[in-house]
């Protein structure tokens, strides 16, 4: 049993990047699917595929690397809100990551979105993680 599926999701991606894997396979959930779409839209991953062969399904993520230096585009994935200590932020107090170079993934009442989108829509929510 996994007590924090979001931390597991981030750790699997972090470990795959550290081992220079091209593809990582993660058990699926609706929240993880939305987070994967955000990572793709923001250019942190190359592509993704949702497979529903089992009851839960899996997410296959193709990781993105720089062509010249062979370094991963993802430098750091950091879990912010944890099951033991939830972190919430209002629309006026949403964090800026690396002066706007990184993203914060926020779970709001309007769905999962980046910090910039949440500020634009004037909604706050739970700060899930930082990506840069």
Which structural category do the helix and sheet elements fall into? alpha+beta
N-to-C span:
29 Å
**Count of discrete alpha- or pi-helical segments spanning 4 or more residues:** 3
By DSSP, the count of extended strands is 8
> What is the fold named in CATH at topology level of the largest domain?
Ribosomal Protein S8, Chain: A, domain 1
Rg measurement, Å: 15 Å
The domain tally reads: 2
Multimeric state:
single chain
Order of helices and strands: HEHEEEEEEHE
- The CATH architecture category of the largest domain equals 2-Layer Sandwich
Instruction: Using the alpha-carbon principal axes, give the shape.
Output: globular
Strand content: 25-35%
Helix content: 10-25%
Look at the structure and give the CATH class of the largest domain.
Answer: Alpha Beta
Largest sheet: 5 strands, antiparallel
Unreliable segments of 5+ consecutive residues: none
Subunit structure: Part of the 30S ribosomal subunit. Contacts proteins S5 and S12.
Pfam families: Ribosomal_S8
Keywords: Ribonucleoprotein, Ribosomal protein, RNA-binding, rRNA-binding
Protein name: Small ribosomal subunit protein uS8
């Amino acid at each position: 049993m996994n007590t924090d599926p979001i931390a597991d999701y981030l750790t699997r991606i972090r470990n795959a990047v550290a081992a220079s894997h091209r593809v990582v396979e993660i058990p699926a959930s609706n929240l993880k699917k939305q987070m994967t779409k955000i990572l793709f839209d923001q250019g942190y991953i190359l592509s993704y595929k949702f497979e529903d062969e089992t009851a839960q399904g899996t997410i296959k993520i193709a990781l993105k690397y720089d062509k010249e230096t062979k370094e991963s585009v993802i430098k750091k994935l950091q879990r912010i809100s944890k099951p033991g200590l939830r972190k919430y932020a209002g629309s006026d107090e949403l964090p800026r990551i690396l002066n706007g170079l990184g993203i914060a993934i926020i779970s709001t009442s309007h769905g999962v979105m980046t910090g910039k989108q949440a500020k634009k829509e004037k909604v706050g929510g739970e700060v899930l993680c930082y990506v840069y």
